[in-house]
Amino acid sequence: MMGIFGSGFSQQAPKVLKKTFSREALAQKLENEEGKTVTIQQILDQHKGKVLVIDFWAGWCRDCLNALPKARELEENNTDIDFVFLSLDRSKEGFEKSLERFDMQDKENYWFAAGWKNDFNNYIDLNWIPRYMVIDQKSAIARYYAISPEDPEIQATINKLLKKG
């Protein structure tokens, strides 16, 4: 039997794949690049009627940085949907530096000023980044758990929501 560290334990898929958000999760506050506070609910409301991909990442996360080219490809191949990037950088300065360093300024970016452990991340079982979620046109969760932008389920979910293929 493999030890905990070699088993991929930390990126185990959650047992329950949720379809909706709790009131506490929706009330979670983040900051945008200007330092303005917004809630998850406000972010979802801005994208209602569109398919939305949420990309959790951080500038210190090697797996996230390795995934960035494929995440950009996913975005380029799906110009009819929206993308939001939620940063788990450890400080406002780190968030700002990461956006600049990895050429993310033209994207819709938010930062968890509250840190990793917060009502939203706890609710969605955030145990690893990168993490991707697909949200449908009514702000329900269509794809709860993916840890690679190359996960074929992401594109399949997008296609199904857009009635393609």
From TrEMBL:
InterPro entries: Thioredoxin-like_fold (IPR012336), Thioredoxin-like_sf (IPR036249), Thioredoxin_domain (IPR013766), Thioredoxin_ResA/DsbE_sf (IPR050553). Keywords: Cytochrome c-type biogenesis, Disulfide bond, Redox-active center. Residues 19-163 form the Thioredoxin domain. PROSITE patterns: THIOREDOXIN_2. It comes from the Bacteria. GO terms for biological process: cytochrome complex assembly. It holds the Pfam family Thioredoxin_8. Its main location: other. It is found in: Cell envelope. GO terms for cellular component: cell envelope. This is Alkyl hydroperoxide reductase. It comes from Chryseobacterium hagamense. The lineage of its organism: Bacteria, Pseudomonadati, Bacteroidota, Flavobacteriia, Flavobacteriales. The gene is tlpA.
